[in-house]
Amino acid sequence: MRTALETLTRAFWGHLRDFPLPEPCRVTLHPGVPEIQVQVAPGEAGTHLAELLLWAYTLDQVTATWWRTEQNNLHITIRGRSQGGAHFLVYGGVAWRHCGGLVQLANGAREGVSVDELYTLRMLLDEQAVEVAA
User: Fold this and answer.
1) What's the pLDDT at 58?
2) How far is 134 from 11, CA to CA, in rounded Å?
3) Alpha-carbon distance 12 to 127, whole Å?
4) What are the two backbone dihedrals, phi and then psi, of residue 28, each rounded to the nearest 5 degrees?
5) C-alpha to C-alpha distance for 69 and 43, rounded to whole angstroms
6) In the structure, what pLDDT confidence band is assigned to residue 134 with cuts at 50, 70 and 90?
7) What's the CA gap between 28 and 67, in Å, rounded?
8) How far is CA 59 from the centre of its chain?
């Protein structure tokens, strides 16, 4: 009989085997919950959001939340289940200044957001980057 930790470990590696995802900067297995937490590696805002979205697109029953932290960052959390049923929490964040007024949240405020809204934010950030470069 497998332990909860063995089950989560197999679920994580199975998910990575099934989907070519970017390497995370941190993975935490919580056998008591049970849940796999994945922190997406930091990077440029558009790239970071793209990596969060890649993870989201591999999960079922996805919900997402974003909030403006007291440290003035936009923190994003994505929850979902793998095809094998494992619970995943994927998270990351970008500096608030990179949001360019595209997200309207008071300091400390939090709200649910759809994957489509995250995708739209990513596309708008890319458009802003092109305009600045031009």
Assistant:
1) 96
2) 45
3) 34
4) -125, 130
5) 18
6) very low
7) 21
8) 11
In this predicted structure, what is the pLDDT of residue 2? 86
Rounded CA-CA distance 81/83 in Å is 7
Q: What is the pTM of this model?
A: 0.90
β-strand partners of 94? 74
d(C-alpha 56, C-alpha 97), whole Å: 24
In this prediction, what percent of the chain has a pLDDT beyond 90?
A: 77
Cross-strand partners of 60: 81
CA 82 to chain centre: 14
- Tokens matching residue 89: 């929490």
Neighbours of 21 (CB within 10 A): 16
What is the Rg, in whole angstroms, of the alpha carbon atoms belonging to the chain? 16
Diameter of the chain measured on Cα atoms: 60
Question: Contact 55/86 with Cβ under 8 angstroms?
Answer: no
Residues in CB range of 123: below 8 A, 6 or more apart? none
Mean per-residue pLDDT, 21-28? 93
Q: At 115, which helix (H) or strand (E)? A: helix 115-133
Report the chain's terminal Cα–Cα distance, integer Å.
60
